[in-house]
Design goal:
The complex is a heterodimer of chains A (107) and B (410). By secondary structure, chain A is mainly α. Helices cover 79% and strands 0% of the residues of chain A. The radius of gyration of chain A is 18 Å and the shape is elongated. A 5-stranded mixed β-sheet of chain B has the order 1-2-5-3-4. The radius of gyration of chain B is 60 Å and the shape is rod-shaped. With 410 residues, chain B is of the alpha+beta class. The chains are: A mainly alpha (107), B alpha+beta (410). Chains A and B meet through helix 4 of A and helix 2 of B.
Chain lengths: 107, 410
């Protein structure tokens, strides 16, 4: 009984990491971040970050569609980061704070 | 036997089929491997291109850059999953967009580089001062006029990245041979030599005082003025050609290298000939007569005619002299002479005049006695009127007391 509990403690996180739940969650978060970026004007002001986010999200969805959840989660996370970066930079540009704007400055 | 004969081909066919399958599987696997490595290489190439030009691409072709990078990542992923077709499609797309990004970002303005030094303003600590590209701190975008900070500007600093004093042209003082001169100033940095010789040892093989490094003839003695080479002496008279007035004729130094002549041809060279213009025997030192010499205007006497004190009587010791005058007059019958008597200024004028006349007459008389025609001679006394020396000294007075033979016709 105890032995089974231990095994489930080890295996469960592994299963969760590659599960459709995690991937779907990541994709959802990326979609939200992308929508926020667009709302901040990131699609126009930060085309590099925005485009990267869009392509990564599309690919994440495609991977999810063929049950490659790990890849889907990874690409979705990348999409989220880039969307977030686009949003923050767009906001900085809108504030006129462009003096030393660096793509690496935003995480 | 029969069964053996039929069973062999069956086994052989099955074996061949299985080998073919195996070969196909191996080929497919190998093809997959090759494709995977090719995809990786192509993705790496794209990555390299992009990282080189990232700044420009980011500014002028952001969408293409994003697409190239994202598709490259996708290609890698697809390849790692063994889906070579999808990987190929993705890498082709990545290459196309990377090429497009490159083309669209060629303009210099894409770099946002105000001072045009290759360092974008965003990273340029001195955006309005161009970086001096000299492999020293070139990434900060600021010029470094004195890399080693030794006070000597790089343009004149022979050792830009090593500090050294100004007097050593910005280089650290190194004196390899330890002779007190830095290598830069030392003409012979590996040989010890005095400062006065610019750090080179003094070597003078032929010991002529001209050191080998400046001696055009290091094994022959010579003069410094001739770069250490011996002077040419064509006639071998020890007078070098450049100082020899007669370089092809041997002659003594005293005559500037020219041989002495014998103008009167009497066998005595001019310097030994007391009468170089008149031939004469060697016993008379080249003169025709021993005690006299016939010149253009006079019969010069080498001795004085002595008279008894205050009188017109010729002393015996002067007879030989007058005999020679008589001989000269005989040998030159065309000569006509004035025999002039002169005195010093001691005593009164009249008596001096009388004495000089008497002495001239005495000489004439003597010569007549030797067979010379009196018509060829005229005796004249000038007294003290024609001195040729200072009468205030005994020596001058002695010179003034004289008899002269002046040629009046020849």
């Amino acid at each position: 009984m105890r032995k089974g509990l231990w095994i489930s403690f080890i295996i469960l996180p592994l299963i969760l990491a590659c599960s459709p739940v995690t991937a779907t969650k990541s994709i959802h978060r990326a979609e939200k971040a992308l929508a926020a970026a667009v709302a901040a004007g990131g699609d126009k002001k930060c085309p590099y970050e925005y485009t990267t986010a869009v392509i990564s999200l599309e690919y994440a969805r495609a991977r999810e569609g063929v049950s490659e959840f790990e890849a889907a989660a990874t690409f979705a996370e990348n999409a989220r980061k880039m969307a977030e970066r686009a949003r923050v930079k767009a906001a900085l540009i809108a504030d006129g704070n462009t003096a030393r704007l660096d793509e690496e400055d935003v995480e | 036997m029969k069964s053996n004969g039929t069973s062999l081909p069956v086994r052989s066919r099955a074996g061949r089929r299985s080998s073919m399958y195996a070969a196909l599987v191996v080929t497919a696997l190998l093809a997959g491997c090759v494709t995977q490595s090719q995809i990786k290489k192509r993705a790496d190439d794209i990555q390299m291109l992009v990282s080189d030009q990232r700044e420009s691409m980011y500014n002028c072709a952001p969408v293409e850059l994003a697409r190239a990078e994202a598709m490259s990542e996708i290609a890698r992923h697809e390849s790692s999953m063994g889906r070579s077709v999808a990987a190929s499609k993705a890498i082709v797309e990545a290459e196309k967009t990377a090429e497009l990004a490159y083309q669209n970002s060629r303009d210099a303005r894409c770099l946002n580089d105000s001072d045009n030094d290759g360092v974008p303003d965003r990273k340029d600590l001195c955006p309005n001062q161009a970086e001096d590209i000299d492999e020293f701190d070139d990434k900060d975008g600021c010029p470094d006029p004195d890399n080693d900070g030794d006070g000597t500007l790089d343009e004149t600093d022979l050792c830009k990245n090593e500090a050294g004093p100004v007097h050593n042209k910005g280089c650290p003082v190194v004196d390899s041979d330890g002779d007190g001169l830095s290598d830069i100033e030392d003409k012979c940095p590996r040989e010890n030599g005095p400062v006065g010789n610019r750090g080179c040892p003094i070597i003078d093989t032929d010991k002529d005082g001209v050191q080998d490094s400046e001696d055009a003839c290091p094994y022959q003695q010579g003069l410094l003025s001739n770069k250490g080479c011996p002077m040419a002496d064509t006639d071998g008279d020890s007078v070098p050609d450049i100082e020899d007035k007669c370089p092809t004729e041997s002659g003594p130094i005293s005559n500037r290298g020219c041989p002495f002549g014998d103008t009167d041809g009497d066998g005595l060279l001019d310097p030994d000939d007391k009468c170089p213009m008149d031939p004469g025997p060697p016993e008379n030192l080249g003169c025709q007569y021993k005690r006299i010499q016939i010149t253009e205007k006079k019969i010069e006497l080498r001795e004085k005619i002595f008279f008894k004190f205050g009188r017109a009587e010729i002393k015996k010791e002067s007879w030989a002299l007058l005999d020679e005058v008589a001989q000269a007059l005989r040998e030159h019958p065309d000569l006509m002479v004035d025999i002039e008597g002169h005195t010093d200024d001691v005593g009164n004028d009249k008596s001096n005049m009388r004495l000089s006349q008497a002495r001239a007459d005495a000489v004439k008389k003597y010569l007549v006695g030797k067979g010379i025609s009196p018509a060829r001679m005229r005796a004249i006394g000038y007294g003290e009127d024609r001195p040729i020396d200072d009468n205030s000294t005994p020596e001058g007075q002695a010179v003034n007391r004289r008899v002269e033979f002046v040629i009046t016709s020849r």
